[in-house]
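Explain this fold:

***
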Amino acid sequence: VLPLLERLAPEEPLPESRGELFAVIQKDINAFDLETELAPEDQRLLRVRLSCDSRRNALLVRRVMETGAKTLADVTRILHDRPEILRTLPAFFPIQITGRCPQSCSYCPYPGFGGGIEKRTDELSVQDFRRMMEEIRKFADDGVIGFSLWGEPSFHSSIVEMIQEAVSVPGFSLLVETSGIGWKPGDAERILALAGAITWIVSLDAWDPALYRKLRGNGMEEAVSFARELLRLAPGSTHVQAVRMKENEEDIETFYREWKGITENVIIQ
């Protein structure tokens, strides 16, 4: 690292992250001997980050060190043999903010236990959500908040304020999973004007209208229109999604191909 830092101009700040370090290398990449080495075991799905850049990762590093690991091979073996040490702090917090949902999807368990989900009026208050975020921050300094565990977030009476509360918490980003139904005109613009990281997933499940109606019910035109609006306003952070099942097996290729012509962000679950 020292020879690398000597290449920095006197007025340049020292790198503060791994990304910034690589940015320095890029300035004269031919001066460095870089090689790619494949690990003996592919552990990418573990999503392990052995750096102390968050409370969660620092706890993981401490646990690995406490095992007595000395080499990369030791760490690889430990991560494979002792997966329990990976359970540090949660990184994703799915929160139900409303009980109402406009559709009783054929594959969803919620209608079975939710009790008249299309007519429910219960919701999480802004004040309770704010207190919930305060409690979450006491043990996790970063993460993703998910709206909504069950229910359609658009039906929350103060959805814009709820989203503002979520994205205003330092270190946290927001994932909004929606049917695309129930959003008021201008909601998307007001939400996207807020400062903060927001990712959108619009669940559609079918390209064919008749199949959509069979799987999800009415509302395809509104859902697709909202998805297209988000893709226009925030193309990089908007995804369209389909759950793959026997009922839509023949339609799923068309769904993927048609939406791929519009966006790269297509999710097939």
Summary: The chain has a mean pLDDT of 91. The beta strands are 92-95, 143-147, 172-178, 198-203, 238-242, 266-268. The CA atoms of residues 92 and 144 lie 5 Å apart.
